[in-house]
Design brief:
mainly alpha; two-stranded antiparallel ribbon; 6 helices; 44% helix
């Protein structure tokens, strides 16, 4: 109980500080997105956290009809080890979107999700609802877990990890989570972000 209460306090304080610091930059990012392409500044993506589908906020980095175009690009999918979809030169990503993704700036609106309590600063990676069907039985507990902006899988290979390896990392976190582990993950996230932002 102490861990959960303290973790929530850290989430709220951390999210508020982050949103305040990033507020001035958000204006410039929003302007860049609007000038670069049609569509909204933010997107709300379906993700699973605590056993429910939530709307995860991100800065829009793709064209507005990206989901409709996905079907035509499936043949180019470079990830064959699970349900993930990734291609090196995704034509749906905008010019500003490439910059945002390179430095992980598109992720910062998730601080609003942290403030709302949808996710935590630290936790398993939030997956799309369809991806949950690929979870082996030994990793089913991840379905009910509160996910996070960063986590042990994000700081140990991120999207480059094989699907099952990512699940193993996140399941390990659930079984060993503590304030000390959360602090180590946050510290490692900051180190990676400032030395190699593409590695988170």
């Amino acid at each position: 109980m102490f861990y959960k209460i303290t973790k929530r306090i850290i989430d709220i304080v951390g999210a508020l500080i982050g949103l305040i610091i990033l507020a001035p930059f958000t204006i410039f990012i929003a302007l860049a997105i609007k000038i670069d392409s049609r569509g909204s500044v933010f997107v709300k993506l379906d993700r699973v956290s605590k056993g429910n589908i939530i709307k995860l906020y991100k800065f829009r980095s793709m064209v507005i009809d990206a989901e409709e175009k996905k079907g035509d690009l499936l043949i180019l999918n470079e990830r064959q080890d699970g349900p993930f979809f990734k291609i090196k030169n995704d034509s749906r990503i905008t010019k500003v979107g490439k910059f945002l993704r390179k430095f992980r700036l598109d992720e910062f609106p998730q601080l609003m999700n942290v403030l709302k309590g949808d996710i935590s600063l630290v936790g398993p990676r939030p997956h799309e609802p369809e991806e949950m069907f690929f979870y082996p039985q030994e990793h089913r507990e991840l379905f009910l877990a509160k996910t996070g902006m960063t986590g042990i899988s994000q700081t140990n290979g991120a999207s480059g990890l094989p699907f099952l390896k990512e699940l193993e990392f996140d399941t390990y976190y659930l079984k060993n989570q503590s304030l000390w582990l959360d602090i180590k993950i946050l510290f490692k996230t900051f180190i990676i972000f400032f030395t190699d932002p593409t590695g988170v």
